[in-house]
């Protein structure tokens, strides 16, 4: 039997790559239309959910209302009556505010351009916050911020002022995650009005760069925006600031385009001299300083990993007559590449390609080394390909919290040993459709542990090009992961795999592999 990987592996990999690249090309173009669509003039804050009996709900509501109600870029939409109606529903509140269609109706009925959704998960002695900014009516995720707070040691709990300021600061960060803030609210010849002012720290003499949204890339399944392309249109200088508005004079305009309404503010150059140019940072955000909790934009699409596995390989072969019973093995080294792509909040797929090599020695049934082993052994290699589709079940309200999963996948393994009648060695190929089960648990903001089990349910194998009558495969993997940042992680895992096959003649082969794999993960 020819191995499946030789026949179809390249085709499957190419097909998956094409599907992914096609999906990621789900973009929208049109400068003026996109500027209007993303004017984001009004925002409402949904009542938060947590796993501590709603302890944080009032704190979050009051802090966000205080921040968003001040004169400035946004019109605050009060959702108190809406939240009260939702809580009277027989459907759990956490399910309702996770339903995009339900939230779409809220956005339409309240005329809110966007909503802020907050989820809080207590794990151990820490509280993990997730803030999401959703755009109406699609309720696509514009931006997301994560941060954590340690449980206070004092019996009095969190101080009101501390918690309120922390929430306001993180909300400010969320609203500044986009590549723009504010827009042109009006233009009359060289006079340009912006809907940002004192609330964003803008002062007279500041020079502001404007741009139009040239392209928006959306994840095809996860209902979130993953990339923006901005096209510069011009520059204005601030002549007067009144509350949440800036009155400016147009000083330059890009060739072939005109500064117009709803175009975006992308950069501020401070006066005098414009020594520092860059995205605007609000005063509350600047006050937080570099010692704040992590709020980097979290991964949106999945991850890729590279590992250098090491471990042990063992093999035993028994002839039907019992005249031959060889067993042996070796220590191996190798390389492996992994990838996981998140199709939706709960759906994902995995790809894996691995290679191992070792020096194989064995003993005969008498306990003495075989001839080849006495001369130093023979080379052995393994090449594996894996693809699966999975569904994750969340045990908390957080996408990044503890969860379990179920997978259905295919694995093809090719074990190569030199063909030798005297040594009873040769190639062993095993293809398997498997079921997978697993779970992970977060012990802290940076440490987590996981376990994963795979059981072959439909297998086929060949030994030295002779098809097997029966075959099996089973593996279990456990490990820990340390997050260096939202994008970078280190993972260490230990995996045990047992597989085997029996020919119609009665000859059987069984193999075991124990693998330790340090892995570098990049989330994207």
Write the layout of secondary structure elements.
Elements: H1 4-24, E1 27-29, H2 31-37, E2 42-45, E3 49-50, H3 57-68, E4 75-77, H4 80-87, H5 93-96, H6 100-110, E5 114-123, E6 126-135, E7 140-150, H7 160-175, E8 184-188, E9 191-194, E10 207-218, E11 225-242, E12 245-253, E13 264-269, E14 277-278, H8 283-288, E15 302-307, E16 310-318, E17 325-342, E18 347-363, H9 371-374, E19 378-394, E20 403-416, E21 428-442, E22 447-463, E23 466-483, E24 488-503, E25 508-523
Helix pairs in contact: 3-7
Structure description:
The protein is elongated, with a radius of gyration of 30 Å. Helices cover 17% and strands 50% of the residues. The chain contains nine helices and 25 strands. With 524 residues, the protein is α+β, with helices and mostly antiparallel strands. Mean pLDDT is 85; it is low at 1-25 and 274-296. The two termini are 39 Å apart. Strands 15, 16, 17, 18, 19, 20, 21, 22, 23, 24 and 25 form an eleven-stranded antiparallel sheet that branches. Strands 1, 8, 9, 10, 11, 12, 13 and 14 form an eight-stranded antiparallel sheet that branches. Strands 2, 3, 4, 5, 6 and 7 form a six-stranded mixed sheet that branches.
> What is the share of helical residues?
10-25%
Assembly status: single chain
Would you report the number of β strands?
25
Which structural class fits the helix and strand makeup? alpha+beta
Strand proportion: over 45%
| Biggest β-sheet strands, sense, barrel | 11 strands, antiparallel
> Which stretches of 5+ consecutive residues score pLDDT under 50?
1-25, 274-296
How large is the radius of gyration? 30 Å
Distance between the termini: 39 Å
- Give the mean pLDDT: 85
């Amino acid at each position: 039997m020819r191995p499946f990987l030789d026949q179809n592996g390249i085709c499957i990999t190419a097909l998956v790559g094409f599907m992914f690249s096609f999906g990621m090309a789900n973009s929208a173009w049109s400068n003026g239309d996109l500027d209007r669509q993303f004017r984001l003039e009004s925002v409402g804050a949904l009542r938060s959910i947590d796993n501590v009996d709603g302890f944080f709900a009032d704190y979050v509501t009051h802090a966000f209302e205080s921040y968003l109600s001040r004169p400035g870029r946004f019109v605050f939409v009060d959702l108190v009556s809406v939240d009260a109606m939702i809580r009277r529903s027989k459907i759990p509140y956490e399910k309702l505010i996770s339903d995009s269609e339900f939230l779409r109706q809220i956005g339409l009925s309240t005329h809110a351009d966007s909503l802020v959704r907050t989820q809080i998960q207590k794990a151990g002695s820490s509280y993990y916050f997730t803030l999401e900014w959703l755009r109406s009516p699609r309720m696509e995720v514009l931006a997301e911020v994560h941060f954590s707070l340690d449980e206070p040691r004092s019996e009095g709990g969190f101080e009101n002022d501390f918690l309120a300021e922390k929430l306001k600061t993180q909300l400010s960060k969320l609203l500044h995650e986009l590549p723009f803030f504010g827009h042109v609210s009006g233009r009359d010849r060289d006079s340009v009005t912006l809907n940002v002012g004192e609330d964003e720290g803008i002062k007279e003499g500041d020079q502001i760069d404007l741009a139009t949204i040239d392209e928006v890339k959306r994840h095809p399944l996860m209902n979130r925006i993953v990339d923006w392309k901005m096209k510069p249109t011009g520059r204005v200088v601030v002549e007067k600031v009144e509350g949440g508005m800036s009155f400016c004079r147009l000083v330059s305009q890009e060739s072939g385009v005109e500064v117009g309404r709803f175009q975006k503010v992308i950069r501020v150059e401070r006066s005098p001299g414009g020594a520092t140019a860059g995205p605007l940072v609000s005063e509350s955000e600047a006050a937080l300083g570099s010692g704040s909790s992590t709020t980097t934009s979290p991964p949106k699409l999945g991850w890729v990993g590279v590992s250098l596995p090491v471990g042990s390989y063992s093999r035993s072969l028994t002839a039907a007559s019992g005249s031959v019973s060889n067993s042996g093995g070796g220590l191996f080294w190798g390389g492996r590449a992994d990838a996981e792509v998140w199709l939706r909040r709960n759906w994902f797929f995995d790809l894996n390609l691995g290679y191992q090599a070792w020096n194989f020695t064995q003993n005969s049934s008498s306990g003495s080394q075989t001839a080849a082993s006495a001369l130093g052994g023979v080379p052995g290699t393994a090449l594996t390909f894996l693809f699966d589709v999975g569904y994750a079940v969340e045990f908390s309200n957080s996408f990044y919290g503890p969860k379990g999963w179920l997978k259905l996948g295919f694995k093809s393994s090719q074990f190569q040993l030199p063909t030798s009648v005297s040594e009873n060695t040769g190639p062993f190929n095993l293809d398997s459709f498997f079921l997978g089960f697993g779970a992970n648990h977060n012990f802290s903001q940076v440490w987590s542990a996981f376990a994963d089990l795979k059981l072959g349910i439909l297998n086929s194998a060949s030994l030295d090009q002779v098809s097997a009558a029966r075959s099996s495969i089973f593996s279990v993997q456990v490990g820990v992961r340390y997050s260096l940042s939202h994008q970078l992680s280190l993972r260490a895992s230990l995996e045990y795999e047992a597989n085997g096959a029996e020919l119609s003649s009665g000859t059987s082969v069984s193999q075991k592999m124990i693998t330790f794999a340090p892995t570098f993960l990049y989330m994207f």
